[in-house]
Amino acid sequence: MILRFRDILLFWVLVWFGVSCKTESDPNPAAPAKVDTTTNKFPIISDEALLTLVQQQTFKYFWDFAHPVSGLARERNTSGDVVTSGGSGFGMMTIPIAVERKFITRAQGLERMQKIAGFLKSNTQKFHGAFPHWLNGATGAVVPFSEKDNGADLVETAFLVQGLLTARQYFNANTPAETALRADINAIWEGVEWDWFQKDKENVLYWHWSPNFGWEMNHQIRGWNECLITYALAASSPTHGISKAVYDNGWARSGDLKNGNSYYGINLPLGEAYGGPLFFSHYSFLGLNPTGLTDQYTDYFTQNKNHTLINYNYCIANPQGFEGYSDQCWGLTASDIPDGYNANSPTNDKGVITPTAALSAFPYTPAESMKALKFFYYKLGDKLWGEYGFHDAFSIDQFWFADSYLAIDQGPIVIMIENHRSGLPWNLFMSAPEVKIGLKKLGFSSPNIN
Questions:
Q1: List of domains in the chain
Q2: Contacting residues for 21 by C-beta, under 8 A, at least 6 apart
Q3: Is the per-residue pLDDT at 12 higher than 50?
């Protein structure tokens, strides 16, 4: 249900903006175009140097291409003034990484965060403290995501707050500037009325509310998908917290989020058949550390690793026979496709590989993800690598390479590679005292919250 809902909305996103992509073909129509996957397009460098290069180049999307007024992340590279709440949260999480990797200075990172937090606090439209999916980056006014989605988006708000809390934990110096930044972030975070989104005190959270249409979209946030962070933050709120009953009855559906079947010999604890698109195992876990994280429903590292391995093995098996799929060229998740946008997965496969899928899985499948990274960079780099890192998606089968970049796809690459390398984003987010309290309230156990 959630995938269908998001697919419809994302289709209209592309109607709004248009997909910026390029299709390369052989000038001789009698000879089908082929992609050269045998020769290296760039000199070989060490694995560590390659990881750093990818992080630095991808970070530029959030640094160089950020909206000049607000500092927030544009939805995609053709979005103009339209910025994304969730993608901006991902962008904020890249700033501590960039400071520690010496892409920017701490002073530069602080200045950007001051701009962002100040704009979010004082200039943006909010609805019971929650943010819309899209904003005008110059004015802070809502840009409707669809006709009735012109108000609060609680999931996007959660992705935004995940980034804010990560930045708050990083900029922890006892100086006037960093103290003021933390105060601004706290004002935003504590202003979100998570419990109000229970709609008449139901034991479930609702995704949307509109000042014109109220609850008409009527979309409950239920698992398993990318939205676990919404319930984790709602439980963690010091001002508008939810109870464990909302998590158990709403998110977990009283246990109905469980799967338990095996695919390619790999057990999948939660979710739909074959696991769905890989962003399910990325967005909530940019900050939530799944290592050792358990509750009555599953071990979350096992869930995410197995989900990824099922996706990987599906691409190797390649039941539809798409050209190019292999143990080096894999990864299905939501992205641009030649004629629009699709939530790519083993059950919804259009022959399109999305680099963020494998690269944001580094903490779960480091060897498999490194093989994919080397293939994307060395073998396809002449077509896939650009100003802000890897372009959004490609299809060797259709000889198609997008020239688009999306904030929600670029951000997880930087963040999850760093979680693999140092654990910095995980350590920062999990150090927030409210998060520790909230996860315990929901019945989670973790070495990071004890």
A1: 2-20+39-441 (1.50.10.140)
A2: 336, 338, 400, 401, 402, 403, 404
A3: no
